[in-house]
Records
---
Amino acid sequence: MEKNAETPSCSISPELIFECSWEVCNKIGGIYTVLSTKAHTLQNLAKDKVIFIGPDVWSAENPSPWFKECRVAGISGWASKAVLPYGITVRVGRWEIPGRPIAVLVKWDGVYAAKDEVYGKMWEKYGVDSLHAYGDYDEGCTFAIAAAAVMESITAYMIESGKLKGAGEVVALFNEWTTAMGLLHVKTYMPEAATVFTTHATSIGRSICGNNKPLYDYLKGYNGDQMAGELNMQSKHSLEKAAAHQADIFTTVSEITARECEQLLERRPDVVTPNGFEKNFVPSKAKFAKAREDARADMLAVASKLTGKKFPENTFIVITSGRCEYRNKGIDLFLDAVDSLRDGGADREVLAFVMVPAWSREARPDLQTALNTRRSRRLDDPVITHWLNNPESDPIINRIHQLGFNASADEKVTLIYVPCYLNGSDGIFNCTYYDILIGADATVFPSYYEPWGYTPLESVAFGVPTVTTSLSGFGQWIIEAFENYFENCGVNVIGRGDSNYPQVVQQVASALKYLAGAPATETETISRAAMATADAAAWSNFIKYYCEAFDLALSKAAARNK
């Protein structure tokens, strides 16, 4: 197993790398974590040779907290002189993350007027079917076109100013179907450049799962084009498939998603680029114990004021979190596993949190009042911290009620739903998810569809053991890299498929019982192993796969440009 190293063991060949994503300086989901943590290592390898391009969705009244507009040598000079098509405007600055890479934010509204013309060209050249587009398709495609135009303009400026010999020294990396139209634009108008397309999850694979169809037992029988027609996904699927086939190098984040791409997009990814990690959000050793103590106190206080129960200090606290994808993220399975602990006679008091943002209305005023008073009494519906706009259609609260969780005094297992973003101002905890996570005794992420899985990786970074499944990219990596048991890596990967849901429920419950009953010395061993696993997943170890992808892309472009 390769150990963590401060200096990556590879070098960057391109003279200029563009990386485009909807989540550059725009925190929405896991791709933000991928890019923002990878950037630090890229800066160490090739300082300011990487330019991140993202959407300018901000205003003076609502500025991006992650972007600082400032002068950047070379790029600011381009921005002051550039005449961009479609009325595109840009802001140049730094992404306010470790490494502070160059970022260009693009305002692309003017592209909408020309989209039909561009879509027509993409149909003629690459067979992209935009006729069935709906939802966020136009938004993603028009931004991607603008981002590609910016790449082409910067490249021409650098060639003219002598900073580049030609476009053949450039790699343009596009993430997800939302930027795929940009890759096709670069392919059309700057064909000398090397292109890389990374899919973090296929749009059609996610749709199959989202429609409660079995993906894995029948994967070899699925035809992506046929399923796209059945699920009304023709436009996104045809765009993603075209980008996968037209890119010089096609990558994805895990072997499990590589198999999905091979079947549904009909191209095997050239390189698997697992998602690395930076542990800079973990408190230092001097502050760690206090941070954990504070987090536990906060969770126990909220639970006590909500339920009217006094929780002992040694309460076993378990968390699941992530996007609100009830089946794909395994939230359904987590709820059933916690429910099964009630039948097994838990030795310790168990407090389980579902920290999954939903359509929340407000922090509960009665809970806010209770947190500011000494007296505790059981509140109405003591299983939720924030009121919902749509309680009748929220699958999580409905399942909690269906299972009969009501925080009664004689129950040793308590379940609480936190349906909001823990960003430091939620009105109840008023601290971030990381501030809370450090206080857990375990986490569970029993995913059904998870191309990688940052949430379990975040957990082990804090030394919190985690349970995940073989259907996550992270879980697959654990199986390949470690002996799969808690004491060795702080992770338990449970084999999951389309037909063993009840068995997985029981295995998750058994893993939690094991952790809850482990003696202190064993718990410490598991925690240390978890932290070592996070070290092994550092970008300094994983960046070599991107170096490989860049080299392959440049070689392919060079052969094409002869």
Note: Residues 1-5 have pLDDT under 50 and may be disordered.
---
Amino acid sequence: MRGLYSNKTAIRHMVFTEVARFAYEGGSKEEFDQLPYQMLPSEHNKFRSNIFLERAVLGERLRTAMGLPYRPASQGGPLSAGLEEAATGERYYTPPLINVIKFACNACPEKRVMVTNGCQGCLEHPCMEVCPKNAISMVNGKSTIDESKCIKCGKCVAACPYSAIIKQERPCTRACGAGAIKNDELGRAEIDQNKCVSCGQCLVSCPFGAIVDKSQIYQCITSLKSDVPVYAAVAPAFVGQWGDACNEKVRAVFKRMGFEDAVEVSIGADLCTVAEARDFVEEVPSKLDFMATSCCPAWAALAKKNFPQMEKNISMALTPMVLTARLIKKEHPGCKVAFIGPCAAKKLEAMRRTIRSDVDYVLTFEEVAGMMEAKGVSFADIPQNEYLPFNEASGDGYGFAVSGGVAEAVKHVIAKTNPGMEVKIAKAEGLAECKKLLMMAKAGKYKGYLLEGMGCPGGCVGGAGTIVDPTKTTKLVQTTVKAKSAMTPFDSQYLAKLEDVEERAKIMSADFSDGAAWEKETFFK
């Protein structure tokens, strides 16, 4: 749960910090093998049934945080197996990105309806009356459910005046709007990779911390220690992630961590807005019934996996991450770019064959927090003379971080370029709602519309790699948007610098846009 510092949060932060420290200090394989014992030195268990299980789970967390494959309990070998291959700044993720540590999974019931101790055995017993399968009876004055008859419809849950009947569902399954969570032969969670879009919501929702994603912390720090300059491209959802006053200090903090500088991805969002507005004006409704935004990789992947016939309806505009990376590399040839944001699915997007040369690393805010601690960098330690505020992107560019922001930005641009043109908008947040939106579009309900889908509740601010409560981040982003002197991309200081129309067209050209080939590409080395 984002915004709640729990045992699970503490363990994740500890893992990211130790992997970052190991990378900064250049540890050996032998030292890596000893990390679980250093991190859990006691002989007494704290979180799981015994200390040996705790260390085994921690070991697999360390491996995935290094970008190494998860190993099942049946597979032996040292913790550091494969470390040599990972110990390079050129290492890409290997599939799958999201992993279930099976021996950490609680094998939660997938779905069940239960009568709790709150049952009062009332005279009316509406639970019995509404049950369509006669699965409820009164035993010793209390309602009892016959599991063999129950169809989990939930009518008894709604009918009970005492809220004494509950409907339980496995948290990861409930969180997965793509329907990618299933059971293995032992009742443990298993991810159907053909359906998974790597949004990471299952990871966030698992109370047992049994689901993890891979990281490039080690690989990024390896590059930071080299002679090649590495630039941080920071997503607009960063506002408030490391404290309410982090905005003016974020560039200085990244420099202290070893980055050459930090650039706001909102600049790329401004360019993306112009590109999507152009696409909409040119293609809807003359060529396409509707157009869907391209920014969220989880939303785009969901659409292409489940509604392949709508592939042509997704905007060909490059995402803000890719546009910003290309701008950075155009200005600083030979450098590397690390995207810093809230999104797990961006890790998958960056591994696409045609994007690899643009985005070298993808790190979440949560992973960067571990890097900060390992390096001994704190926002509180940044003196005022090191303040380097971001100030080039528009308010609309920052608005990409919240649900509805992308569509509104496109609408604002069209209002300037094509006054009087009506832009009808429909939006959804969370993959389950996104799927409903696409089903309605398939049925012809959104002709002439711009559809915006965000894979995470609340938009990017609700991504799996965020640190603070998405509700709080939403308010901070909205405040930032209102405070911007440049409200639309056409008012942006940076867009004004791109005076060469041919260069602007080249950066945003469809020649670079490979969205239509999403499912046809080789994603990984």
Note: The radius of gyration is 25 Å.
---
Amino acid sequence: MFFRLLKSVREYKRPAVITLLLMVVEAMIETALPYITATYLINRIQTQGESLDLVHDILPVGLLMVGLALVSLCCGGIGGFTCARAASGFAKNLRNDLFAKIQSFTFLNIDKFSASSLVTRMTTDVYNVQMSFMMAIRTAVRSPLMLIFSVAMAAYMGGWLALTFAVVIPVLGIGLFLVSRKAMPAFHRVFKKYDRLNESIEENVRGMRVVKGFSREEYEKKKFGQASGAIRDDFTKAERIVAINTPLMNFCMYFNMIFILLAGSFLAVRGLELRNMEAAGQTLTAFQSTVAGLNINIGHISALLTYGMSILMSLMMLSMIYVTITISAESMRRIVEVLDEVPDMTNPPEPVYDIPDGSIDFENVSFKYASEAEKFSLADVDLHIPSGATVGILGGTGSSKTTLVQLIPRLYDTTEGCVKVGGRDVREYDITALRESVAMVLQKNLLFAGTIKENLRWGNPDATDEEIVEACRLAQADEFVQSFPDKYDTYIEQGGTNVSGGQKQRLCIARALLKKPKILILDDSTSAVDTRTDALIRAGFASYIPSTTKIIIAQRVASVENADMILVMDNGRILNAGTHEQLLETSPIYREVWEQQTNGGEQHE
């Protein structure tokens, strides 16, 4: 899994490798300094005393140590810079890879992940992986090397006295492992709760008007507080367990220091006495000879104390690395889950790029959103629409009107049967070319942060100002746009919150018109405009895109009564099809809706 993510390092391999090499050099120097101090300074001072020459004996060693310390400092400083560059670049690439992957998803893929979960994966999870990567190329290299080098040097210089580490290292290592393992379940639970927290934030911000309209601020604050509190509780539990690391570390560190100082001082003093006795010709017992042979001195004790501190600090850092990487393992899994998600539809081996016309054919089409679903959302649909025709679709909520039209630009693939555009199965076309030929205007279309011009040019990036104005006139949007102080340069807030629902729908229709598609789908996209404006928009279609096939999903009969064909849908099936006059005679449902709306006097703002 970790190696799967390493593919995102790419151009940042060099700073990552440089960091690794610098950490090796830094660890070697830091391990060598206590040895030089003990052997060439402390021991010399102890044995030679006043006979030492400052210039010839002390100064060269001091300069060597200063030089090595400066090299270590440079390695650490440069390593920190290259590590930060590599980790930040890796995180940038990983976010880009995630975003690019999400852009390749179909609706079916997107349905597997909530929006809040994808946001968490691209922010919190990527940050956790970035921190792990930073540790992996710096601390996770330096700490094990320091541990190995320090143990080796301690054994070399302290002899049997270094056996203290044979006790301390297992105790501390096992203790830190158990602490980390105990804390992990709480850390794992946090990520799902982060998803719920982000979902609460997103839902609240998007529905702010509804929240205020129903005076539910206190309820929302309470709900958010509960989600935030759940994260706090898990983090508190985990951190409470992890906090045991510090006292455990201190216990082992001070035990090690006390043992080395007591045992080392005893062996150094006693060993010196025994060596003097041996030099005077006295016979020593086997034990006394062993003690004298250890040859422990002050330099050795000093070095052992330093190496002991390095060993324990390395173990502490390794425990932190273990905790961090274990936490980020869940983040890695969640990120890889997105990266490994396979889009359920791809281009054919030799895709067709030219869509000849806007004719549409549904041949024995059935569809369900999940393969395990028992019931089809669409069933046994046979439909043939000639190019340039206008088709209206009526039906109650849940009758699968939107599902039907989403099969045309291949937002979903049929479960059974096939959908044809321009006489070819849509699965034979290049997906981008197909969708470029189809424009969809939804009831809840989205405007992006930017100017009105920038939003409209989503339909045609090369559209001139004159073409933009013309499209807005046909969509009945030019009048209100001209009333803004900045006109077409007016800035649209994120989600189009600074324009009304009807204005947003008309701008989205203008955006679709600029595309000049072969097929235009209006999914209840004039629900927020009055009947007069609706009629003017439909008249604009007839003059501006006469050869485009137009499919209009509506709740009002007035929006579709002049269509070449009207479909009446219910429960995923087409119940009736025909013109307005034909359906009044043959479709009880259509006649009932028409009578209710004409006699009831449908009201609009």
Note: The mean pLDDT is 82.
